[in-house]
């Protein structure tokens, strides 16, 4: 649920990387570290329940946090100017609240995105994409008093979603995009003392 009282997130970002290009092929690897103040995270207090029984939580500021990891990218021109395959992967080295040591919410251990893009005509292109999300660890201990006894104790396992999309160049500076990012309506729940949390 949204929160009108959120303070803006402030971060200091550092990264260093290497990139390779040759005959349309592209590959790269990057190390990054982001130090946050007022990091926006999923809240810990249950505000209510949905019609299906899932808990309703609210976004909140989580204090100081650090996110550190590696990202790799790969572009392969399968058929020059017609079909290309793009993949990127992110591996999290560290993702935690600096004050408590708890893992940050909704940040998986790794993410892999792969996309096949088909340039059908000079103006129209279509794509299909697949994203794999790694496991997400729950908080290891309570951060506030009311959270005791209702901590999510089970991590979310890895899962994947499929999407499709297309775009049409209407004119020089105007393009129409459309797509479905979760084609099979995959829904993931984190178990929390016998109740599901969205």
TrEMBL record:
Membrane topology term reads: Multi-pass membrane protein
Task: Kindly list the biological process annotations in GO that this record carries.
Answer: siderophore transmembrane transport
**Annotated InterPro entries:** Beta-barrel_TonB, Beta-barrel_TonB_sf, TonB-dep_rcpt-like
Chief subcellular location equals membrane
Alphabetical GO CC annotations of the entry are: cell outer membrane
Q: Which GO terms describe its molecular function?
A: siderophore uptake transmembrane transporter activity
Instruction: Identify the residues that the record assigns to the TonB-dependent receptor-like beta-barrel domain, covering every copy.
Output: 2-183
Under Pfam families, the record lists:
TonB_dep_Rec_b-barrel
Subcellular location(s): the record lists: Cell outer membrane
Q: Which UniProt keywords apply?
A: Cell outer membrane, Membrane, Receptor, TonB box, Transmembrane, Transmembrane beta strand, Transport
- UniProt family annotation: Belongs to the TonB-dependent receptor family.
PANTHER family (alphabetical): TONB-DEPENDENT OUTER MEMBRANE RECEPTOR, TONB-DEPENDENT SIDEROPHORE RECEPTOR PROTEIN
Q: What is this protein called?
A: Outer membrane receptor FepA
What organism does the UniProt record list as the source?
Klebsiella michiganensis
